[in-house]
Amino acid sequence: MANKIYLAGILSLLMLTGCTINAQGLPTDEDVKTPESTLATTISKPAPAKSIIPAPETAAPQGKSDRQEGAAKPEPYDFSKPVPESAAVELSFFEDAAFVGDSRTDGFMLYSGIGCGENITYNGLTIFGLDTQSGIRRGGEKYTAFEILEQKQYGKIYLALGVNELGYYDDEGFYNAFLSAIDSIRAIQPDADIYLQTIIPLNEQKIKESNGRSYLTNEHLVIYNDLIAKAAAEKEVYLLDPYSDFVDETGALPYDASRDGVHLSKEYCQKWLEYLKTHTIGE
Amino acid sequence: MKKRMLPLAMLLCLAMVACAKPTQPQEEEPQTDTTTDALIETLTAGEMFSEPLEPLDVEMAYVLYRFADYHVEEDDLLSASVFRSSGATCEEWAVIEFADVQEAVEGYDALLDYIEDQISSNSDYRPQEVSKLKAAILEKYKNTVVMIIADDKEAAENALQDMKN
Lengths: 283, 165
What we know:
The structure holds two protein chains of two kinds.
Chain A: H1 2-25, H2 35-44, E1 97-101, H3 103-111, E2 118-121, E3 136-138, E4 141-143, H4 145-149, E5 156-160, H5 171-188, E6 193-197, H6 204-209, H7 218-235, E7 238-240, H8 242-246, H9 266-277
Parallel strand pairs in A: 1-2, 1-5, 5-6, 6-7
Antiparallel strand pairs in A: 3-4
Helix pairs in contact in A: 2-7, 3-9, 5-7
Chain B: H1 2-19, H2 37-45, E1 54-56, H3 58-64, E2 77-84, E3 92-98, H4 101-125, H5 130-134, E4 137-141, E5 144-149, H6 153-164
Antiparallel strand pairs in B: 1-2, 2-3, 3-5, 4-5
């Protein structure tokens, strides 16, 4: 009898253990965070002084994206983290690159010394206007950013947007627009490596001194950077984090980096290029 | 009678010559060769601009102004002095010497479209800069084109006038 009780107890213990394993081993719906639930959490939190984008841990893969069929897959790439630092590439690396962005990227193309790559920029361009803002002139005609991308195939697409959108106060819309933009770019440029860049910080004091717009704040910018990082992870495109390279101890762009707190001086455009040269995915 | 008619006829001929109008409109270009060195020096001093401007090399100026779309080769730019805001304003200036007058005409058209594009793209983005763009100075002197988008337009016009004198 005692043995039966003992065996029953052991059996009961085993049954309880099995239930625990099943509950822990298989994710439930509550464990999987949808972008919407993550957004709600992000928006409700007070903005930190600096971005919470994690530092890269894994080494960059040697080949192209693991998504390519037949490509060697030494280790799975973690798209949730920024591209890690590596040896600086030559400027020729950017010859087949397209740089899509706003006036900040236009300044980069003019003053960084990059000397190559396609300039697909427009003053005031936003993530919402890639297929509607037709202000980019080519051959006497004006086109949208997507129309320009459709004209030629590139090896890399660098996307740097977000400053002009700070005045939209539509964080969820911003996030969804990034997801949609990535899908569109991928459809237009199926073989290109897509790099999303976090937004370089602002200097709010300089903005105020130059009578800039009050909605240009680093507090909101950091939220947008978190959303950009989430979009990169969600869509498995490469994340670049120039924000962390530029931000000072106060959570801002250094005072001398810009005349209006937004657009980078020549020296800092060159610094931006150095960042890009040392954060690439090998070919 | 014939003796009286002859001086009258001569007088009439002289009057006709004096009142004759040219068949072609007068060019606004100065009669002497234009020297731009003094103008470049004045512009570089920057007093007519609200901020220090960044220099742009010939290669980037060629790309920025999209001269290729206007059938101007990079080699057709004999010299280019270009200074531009890094982004805080729309202020900039360019003094570009082209290989010949025809290239300068094409370059002029390119810069005209460039100014119009700047007006268009800044109407919502930086509306406070549009007045400077609309007051832009764009002139051609034989094979040299001058563009000035300044904070102080009067100073810019004075600098140009000094060059013409």
